[in-house]
Amino acid sequence: MVIKKGKFTIEGLENVQINIGKVTSSDEDEEPQGPTPAPDIHGLRDWDMRLLKRYEPVYSPICDLCCYCTYGKCDLTGNKEGACGINMEAHQAREAMLRTLTGAAAHAGHGRHLLNHLIKRFGADHPIDVGPTNIKAPVTQTVLGIKPETIGDFVPVLDYVEEQITQLLATTHIGQEGSAIDFESKALHAGMVDHVGMEVSDIIQISCLDMPKSQADAPLVDVGMGIIDSTKPVLLCIGHNVAAVTYIMDYMEEHDLFDKIELAAICCTAHDMTRVNPKAKVVGSLSKQLKYIRSGIPDLIIVDEQCIRADMMRETSKLHIPVIATNDKVMYGLPDRSKDDIDDIIRDLASGDQPGVLLFDYEKVGELAPKLVMKMAPIRKEKGITALPSDEEFKKLASSCTQCGACVIGCPQGLEIDKAMEAAVEGNLTLFEELHDKCIGCGRCDVECPKNIPVLDVIEKASQKVIREEKGKLRTGRGQVGDAEIREEGVNLVMGTTPGVVAIIGCPNYPDGSRDVYEIAEEMLQRSYIVVTSGCSAMDIGMFKDDEGKTLYERYGGGFLKGNLLNTGSCVSNAHITATTIKVAAIFARRDISGNFEEIADYVMNRIGAVGLAWGGSTQKALSIGTGCNRLGIPVVLGPHGPKYRRAYPGKAYDKDKWNLLDARDGSVHNVEPAPEHLLISAENKAELMPLLAKLCFRPGDNNLGRMIKLTHYIELSEKYLGVLPDDWHIYVRSEADLPLAKREELLKILEEEHGWKIDWDRKKILEGPARMVDISFQPTNVPRLCKGAVE
Amino acid sequence: MAAKELDTTRNAVPFDKANIPGPKMAKAVKAVVAGKFISKAKRPLLIVGTAAGDDGVIEIVRSMSEKGIPVAATGSSLKRLKEEGIDATYVNLHALVSYLKDPDWKGFDGKGGYDTTIFLGHTYYYASQLMSTLKNFTKIKVISIDRHYHPNAGQSFGNLKPDDFIRALDVVVAQL
């Protein structure tokens, strides 16, 4: 018998009513609860301090002032204190924490909206179904110690997340926290609860909306600005929350409209739309947003939440593109027409009397959007609305440029737009075509131009040829990694024979165009790393093709296996990346995970060679995702814009005292190689990044074969991209068996001649030199209480 | 006709227009002053980024290296430096500023930290942010001899045209 929450009466006892509230599991085989179920702000502080002692925070202020209160502005330059007593270091830690918290709140807010909506639509008892697994919600279970079975079980989970966010936000008020290191601990806490919020968001939508469930061969869908058939009405959705859009897709299916309307999206709503129905199309990442609106192609735009441009209404009004806002996080001052008749709303939008409306009744959105877009397309065509300049206008605009360079100074990437303008006047568009991929589509160049040239329009006009060719393939988000995959691959990952997991996540604020993430993924896949991706990066990876016209998603499998490329899905699907490492600890290493965050993070940090890469990270969410990875012991690399997040956690390989680990077998202290060397670091360009990624996959728990493979890749990538043998390769050598086979003799010679190691040349064995020898039974841990016989 | 006098103090506004950190911004200096300043440093460190491999700039790196200034090669600059036979040590710039902040760091030669850092050939916004670490949390002097004005340095050139930039670097080297 299944006991459910609710009210019951018993036949014959009509005066008796039984109320059943929360139902808790009574399974006898329930795994033991760890020491920190649902930790509050200080619950994992000891773990944070262990991390922060090794990876001391380094701050890079983007502003030297504090303007938090009316005491200020205060000048904190040089780590001075402000009027409230806070110094620059603590203020920067607070700023970084606040950004992390903002990201966590965005995901949690998304999750709460979806949860309320889906409970209303499907009922709180709707079962969780994420595919074949015994650990349905790994992050939730590890942090809160509970195992949700229905979507209603996530209500207290989000209650917890929201409470933590509120308590953390409270600490930023004047007169509260004043310690940088404790702000860091709080930031790590915010990052961790962010992953809980993301997990809730994605699990409930996977379960209710029939998205792929741990499906390695999830369908391939079209991606790119060139894939849209603009002869049809084009309905464009932008944002992250698929709730309203599902009604549009249902309506379109019911009325056979997918052949008549182009349904496409930008940003994470695109991921989730295609997970629900692969007939939808993906225009691309966040950086395509303004470009695509400016193209004038969309006939109707539906927005939900997160990563939507603030200037949407100004841009769309100019082009007579109506906007329907469906989520109260983005309302643009528009009138709420939720209670109005659909035909009245269509009339007002089609006529242009209203540039947009709020519509929170999703049944109405579902019916109205397809009807409206079919009405708008001929109206807009008849009006002759053209967005980009004509050939003649283009020449005129380019000629009016005075090469003053204001656009270059205004451009966040410092792109040499002035030179491209000059070349365009001569009829050479190649500079613009190259610039198009590097341009993040922010439009700051337009604002800066003293001649009022619509610079972004000029860039897009000049790049029409390459835009038409922007046609790629994306494997739709698969969701979690299944238990069977973990069983098969876990041993390779922990032993190091699969050299590592590289998780390419985050936004498209790349330093040198979107091609970078494609090339990074390709190189690591060819080297048998598992490449996991999500969000905007996942789209950009699919935008490029090899000589045979195939994208990486077509060339590589989508399973959790070496040399495979997994797209987990949208932003909130990032939780499945951290969840995968938790599953390795649970399934492969048989660690108890419930309420046991510290032990699991300790295991992940010392055993699992996973590294995150937010190459174009720009949003607060990207920071919170990365910070959540950090608390779980996963290092993260940022692109060169990364220091604008204000802090990083670099390691100091030269400081030997920071690299002591305990052996859990007896509590003995061992000085080990710096692995992973950094917890949060940036790189200037792709060439610097590649060997760094390989290096950050080293773990103290690697066996000889694994270390040899990882060292091979580290050395090869350094030689390929930096032109040298890395100067620290030898510190990762514990015995001759760690050395790359093809270079063993050469490297032994270097060890002897340059580092003074003693080599037995007859047996080609290292006799003296390494900081430590290999011990295959070594159980590395940073946590004293996990050692045998420990009392803590 | 005599070449127009080079003034590297002009146009001293952040190359990224909104990059106004606060009341303390770099003093715009003439190339001669920059050169003399570097020559007086007891423990200088030349920190070069990937653009230091550009033609015209690489020769300056070589000259400064030959004058005995150690070179930290950040980004992917090391490849070109090695090809040119310039002695340099690879280091990640983000990691380097954390080392420079550490009073116990012994430097690349084991002889201790550095009193003056010279920035050349960097991605603008990247270097700017990491200079702000040195500005706010160390006593190390930061001088930018890059093409664009860096407000987070202690001293910097203004924004220069490419030709003037190379001329300015020649003037700097001449003072060493």
Which terms would index this structure?
heterodimer; A: 792 residues; alpha/beta; six-stranded parallel β-sheet; 28 helices; 41% helix; B: 176 residues; seven-stranded parallel β-sheet; 6 helices; 34% helix
Write the layout of secondary structure elements.
The complex is a heterodimer of chains A (792) and B (176).
Chain A: E1 6-10, E2 13-20, H1 45-54, E3 58-59, E4 65-66, E5 74-75, H2 88-122, H3 138-144, H4 154-170, H5 180-209, E6 220-223, E7 234-238, H6 243-254, E8 262-266, H7 268-276, E9 281-284, H8 289-294, E10 300-303, H9 312-318, E11 323-325, H10 342-351, E12 356-358, H11 362-382, H12 391-400, H13 406-410, H14 417-425, H15 430-438, H16 444-448, H17 455-462, H18 464-468, E13 472-475, H19 483-495, E14 501-504, H20 515-526, E15 530-534, H21 535-541, H22 552-555, E16 565-569, H23 575-588, H24 597-607, E17 610-614, H25 620-631, E18 636-638, E19 647-648, E20 660-663, E21 668-671, E22 680-682, H26 686-695, H27 704-721, H28 744-755, E23 758-760, E24 765-768, E25 780-781
Parallel strand pairs in A: 7-8, 7-10, 8-9, 10-11, 11-12, 14-15, 14-17, 15-16, 17-18, 18-22
Antiparallel strand pairs in A: 1-2, 3-19, 4-5, 6-13, 20-21, 20-25, 23-24
Helix pairs in contact in A: 1-5, 2-4, 2-5, 2-25, 4-5, 5-25, 6-11, 10-11, 14-15, 19-23, 23-24, 26-27
Chain B: E1 27-28, H1 31-39, E2 44-48, H2 57-66, E3 71-73, H3 78-83, E4 89-90, H4 93-100, E5 116-120, H5 124-137, E6 141-144, E7 155-156, H6 162-174
Parallel strand pairs in B: 1-7, 2-3, 2-5, 3-4, 5-6, 6-7
Helix pairs in contact in B: 1-6, 2-6, 4-5
